[in-house]
Amino acid sequence: MNITSRIHGTRRWRHSEQGVVTLTVIWAIAIAAVVVGATQVLSFRQATLGRESLARTQARWAARAGVETMIAILEWHTANPDPADSMAMSRDLESNAAGEVETGSWDIRHFIDGREWAGPMDENAKLNINAASKSYLVNIPSMTQDVADSIMDWRDVDHEVQGIGAERDYYRNRSLGYEPRNADFRSIAELELVAGGWPQNVRGEDWNLNGRLDPSEDDGKRSLPDDRPDGKLDAGWSGLLTAVTRPNPFAMSGQERLDLRKASEDELIERTGVDKQQAAALLTFSKGTNASMAQILSTPLSQLGSNRGRQTPAGGGSTGSTGRSSVGRVGGSTQTSSSAVKSLDLKQLREVMNECTIKDARGSGNVNTGKLNLNTTSRSMLIDVLQLETRFADAILTRRAAKPEGLTSLADLVDLPGVSQAQLTTLALVADVTSTVYTISCRGRAKGTGAEVEMVVVVDRSALPAKIMEYREP
């Protein structure tokens, strides 16, 4: 091999070596580019997730701030009640229903009777399913006799079927995996476990039971649930029934209610301003077998002494149609002149109704349920469910609308034109003018990103500090 061939061979080897090196460098650059690109993508995704997580955290704390604001207002008004203004707390809740913190804002609202309101939902605007009689349940839209009977079977303590209801054997034979609770309902969603309690009836359009009109609940058939895109929320049975209200142990003055079965004459006189004879008559009546505050509202004090707590007949009937009440005059009726005990005047009756209670020593009735609040309940509740005469229901609504402070006592109803003893008794058995439990549906929004987090918190203010009964994020 000559020198020229060697030179050419060496050159070819060098060119081949350079090509391999170049190819290796290109591959290294390509791999590095892929690694760098993947790292950038991963970093971008992590940064995006980090921003989303931060935004949701900001939104959650904004929602939490709104919830805490509502709880603080509830507790303040529980500790500092205004006996002359039943609506003071509602106004404070409404005026603080929207607010801001440094990193976000909150918005609290609810629907009742198809109308949107600012602030938390007053659960006492609804009828408590644990105390509702069958005669009221069957008035609920789409409620049938068999479902009403099944509800009664679910909450009673025995295994005997009521009417055409359903008891333990019904659920066992269908292998449903559960039986009737035979105790109080714990939530309105539990109603879906009852025979015939279909979700579309229980929830209506409010599929997540938050009391708000969400976009998916106002878009027709484009997404579940099926709804009417009319800008109104049809909450089904959940808009009329509740399972969480509790009795209010506090009087309008903020003190614990005075139990007439245990009170002394001096205590009663000091708290309500009645005279000695009136106090004695009230205390004597309260020890009767079926004595109730409803009878004190609707019956003259002289008659209470003779009735000795005789119970008004079931179904809202009365012992007479005179239209009398403890104040001595309702609808044109007056107290008999032979009575030795003066009828309570309107101020005395208001104080007795606001400050006193009659606790049944036998424990009959459901002592764990709260009453309907006439200041916040709907017209459909009064007329369609409670079956009050339209004239009477409208008179109640007109009276409360005319008073900025709302109804401060059931005694505010005794001078309504045409009101009867039967109507007052029926209403006083299920209704009052205060509330204990509120559902706070709070939507927090982060500044900048607009990320949202919703909290639904059920708060019981019947004791201090207030108790959170339920917390969820739909």
Task: Give an overview of the whole structure.
Strands 1, 2, 3, 4, 11, 12 and 13 form a 7-stranded antiparallel beta sheet that branches. A hairpin with a 6-residue loop joins strand 12 and strand 13. The chain is built from 14 helices and 13 strands. Helices cover 39% and strands 12% of the residues. It has helices at residues 3-79, 88-95, 134-137, 145-155, 168-173, 199-203, 265-272, 276-286, 293-298, 301-307, 346-355, 379-385, 390-402, 421-430; strands at residues 98-101, 104-112, 115-118, 121-122, 127-128, 241-242, 258-259, 356-357, 372-373, 431-432, 437-446, 452-460, 467-472. The longest helix is centred in the N-terminal third of the chain and has 77 residues, at 3-79. Among the domains are: 127-244, Ribonucleotide Reductase Protein R1, domain 1 (Orthogonal Bundle), CATH 1.10.40; 258-371 and 393-429, no CATH class. The protein has 474 residues and is α/β, with parallel strands linked by helices. Helix 1 (3-79) runs antiparallel to helix 2 (88-95), helix 7 crosses helix 8 (276-286) and helix 8 runs parallel beside helix 10.
